[in-house]
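Protocol step 4 of 5: obtain the predicted structure for the target chain.
Materials: sequence only (see below). No template structures provided, no constraints applied. The aim of this step is simply to have a reference model before the mutagenesis design in step 5. Sequence pasted as it appears in the construct record:
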Amino acid sequence: MANRKTRYLIDGRLPDVLALIQVLALSPKTRRSEDGLSSELQGKPTSADSWIEVGSQHREFFRVNPTGQKRAHVSLIARNAQETVEREDGDEIRPLLPPDTTAKLMQLAVDLHAKEVQRSEAWKTVIIPITIAVLAAVASISAAFISATLKAP
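Step 4 output (C-alpha cells):
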C-alpha cells in the first residue's frame, strides 16, 4: 500500500477517486463489487490493481468490505450515512446523493490532491534558497582565497 501521505500523488489516482465517487454516488446500487465497478467504469483503475484497493486507500470517502458473506465490495460513506427509504416493493434503499453533495465530495478530492502536491513540493522553497546561499558563500570564500593568494609576495 502506498504511503498514506502520498496516496493522491500516485499517477492516475485523482481521476480514479473521482470516477469511484461518481459511480457510487449516482448509481442505484449503493455498493459495488470489483466486477461491477470494472464493468461500470469499463476497466481497471490506472492507479491500483483493483477498485477495491483504491477504495481501501481512501477511507476518507469509501467504506470497503474486503470479505464476508458477499463478495468484496466498496461503498461511499456519505451515501451510507443517509437514512434508508422504503420503496414501493417494501425494500429499503439508500437514495442517490444529490448532485451538489457529489460535486462537493469531488471538489474535496481535488483539494486533497492539490494539498498533497503542494506539500510534496514544499522542500523547493527551503532547499533551493539554502543551496544558493551555500554556493554564494563558497564563491565568496573562494574569491577571497584567490585574491589573498594573488596578493601574497
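Step 4 remarks: The chain has a mean pLDDT of 87. The helical segments are 13-26, 34-40, 51-57, 77-80, 99-120, 124-151.
Proceed to step 5.
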